[in-house]
């Protein structure tokens, strides 16, 4: 029989792995969304920006995947970015923006998606007891997402 401490440790571990899997899946989906938006953007500058964001999200996913393995766990199969019932609204909205073939609309949807990503990271950082290494990684991701939000705002001003 497990002690209370052992049970709490197991629950904490399970919650951490679950949170990392959620972020992993969202980053894979974000990467795909940025790539799709890049295909439909008109401006070369915007295409470069979107490609940079897709690469960054792939890097985030790689770091999350590595961390899950370091916790002696395996990422969920769906973490490869497969379609799920509750896909991030940004990636649904981006389809609408893409259908307009309007760079400003694409940026608006990117802004909405990045705000949602920032919120997701904030929730994980706020609600979970994280090992220092994991906390530092998530804070770094959060900081870069925040910087992306600023960059999107600057680009939006160019397309007004």
Secondary-structure blueprint:
Layout: H1 4-40, H2 44-70, H3 89-100, H4 103-127, H5 132-159
Helix pairs in contact: 1-2, 1-3, 1-4, 2-5, 3-4, 4-5
Question: Can you give a write-up of this model?
Answer:
- The chain is built from five helices and no strands.
- It is mainly alpha-helical.
- The radius of gyration is 17 Å and the shape is elongated.
- Helices cover 81% and strands 0% of the residues.
- The chain has helices spanning 4-40, 44-70, 89-100, 103-127, 132-159.
The level of helicity is: over 70%
C-alpha geometry:
elongated
**What share of the residues does DSSP label as strand, in percent?**
under 5%
Structural class: mainly alpha
N-to-C order of helices and strands = HHHHH
> What's the alpha carbon Rg, rounded to whole Å?
17 Å
Largest sheet: none
Q: How many angstroms separate the termini?
A: 64 Å
Instruction: List how many beta strands DSSP finds.
Output: 0
Average pLDDT for all residues? 86
Number of discrete helical segments: 5
Low-confidence blocks of residues: 82-86
Pfam family, one: DUF2383
Organism: Christiangramia oceanisediminis
InterPro entries: CHP02284, DUF2383, Ferritin-like, Ferritin-like_SF, UCP029477
Protein name: PA2169 family four-helix-bundle protein
